[in-house]
Amino acid sequence: MTRGGAEVIALEGVSVVRDGRFLLNNVDWVVHDHERWVVFGPNGAGKTTMLQVASTYLGPTRGRVRLLGEVRGRVDVRVLREQVGYAGPAPAEMVRRDLPAIDIVVTGKHASFVDRRWHEYDDDDVAFAEQQLTRLRSDHLAGRRFGTLSSGEKQRVLIARSLMTHPKVLLLDEAMTGLDLGARERLVASLADLASDPASPAVVLVTHHVEEIPPGFSHIVMMTRGTVLSRGPIGTTLTAAALSECFGQELSLERRDDRYHAWSAGGA
């Protein structure tokens, strides 16, 4: 996707300080409508903190945050959050494991983690939930209880759930954590499908493995120690030199069939 769409996220000079330590240090970052971004770096780089700030769930120590054109501090953030989809390890611990996957998805319309009795849902809501499961190659899971699903299946269901509110931006925080190779590849394929769909919102994926970058993702912001090392189109920004600087060791990088692979340049 090319730039030129509406701005959906903008961080300007954002820092987050906790106990005298910078979790983020003077970060600038802009995401436009329909772009597909990877937030990339080692553990402790500040990736999740940056997503929390971008989604308004964490306030910056200094700097300015705009979400969907609105400046944080000048608008009711609860209204903005309705337009932000979020999926990651944390929500998986909050849903009821005895509910079928279709209920997990449909209750996302009201950001509810309880069953359908607490809100009204009609046939159109259920049909839309089924469509989101199909988008994530997970329609066959609709009748399965959430607690019986594998980690990868749960993640796909939760991403489908996050699309129920027709979000303007979808934030995926370490969505592939704990997945085995097969589950990871199925989720990568699902996210590639999502990236190729022009009707999909802007998508931001947090990861620390280049192998997890799905085809179709267009931009990357590379981070270490709470700072941005580089950002821009993946094809020119993600290089062996940038990867080596990011992780503090010499690494080799290869792109093959729209996928990336990295290994130690020393063979260790």
Question: What is the element layout, followed by pairings?
Answer:
Layout (H helix, E strand, L loop, with lengths): L6 E12 L2 E12 L3 E5 L6 H8 L7 E6 L2 E2 L5 H5 L2 E4 L1 H4 L8 H6 L16 H13 L15 H12 L6 E5 L7 H16 L5 E6 L11 E6 L2 E7 H4 L2 H8 L3 E6 L2 E6 L4
Helix tally equals 9
Q: Low-confidence runs (pLDDT<50, min 5 residues)?
A: none
Distance between the amino and carboxyl termini: 37 Å
Q: Note the overall shape.
A: globular
Radius of gyration: 18 Å
Largest sheet: 6 strands, mixed
Order of helices and strands: EEEHEEHEHHHHEHEEEHHEE
| Count of folded domains | 2
Estimate what percentage of residues fall within beta strands. 25-35%
**What is the arithmetic mean of pLDDT?**
89
Overall description:
- It contains 9 helices and 12 strands.
- By secondary structure, the chain is an alpha/beta fold.
- The protein folds into 2 domains: 151 residues, Rossmann fold (3-Layer(aba) Sandwich); 78 residues, no CATH class.
- The strands form 3 sheets. The protein has a 6-stranded mixed beta sheet, with helices on both faces. It has a 4-stranded antiparallel beta sheet with strand order 2-1-4-5.
- Strand 9 and strand 10 form a beta hairpin.
- Helix 5 crosses helix 6 and helix 6 packs parallel to helix 7.
- The longest helix has 16 residues.
- It starts with 6 loop residues before the first strand and ends with a strand.
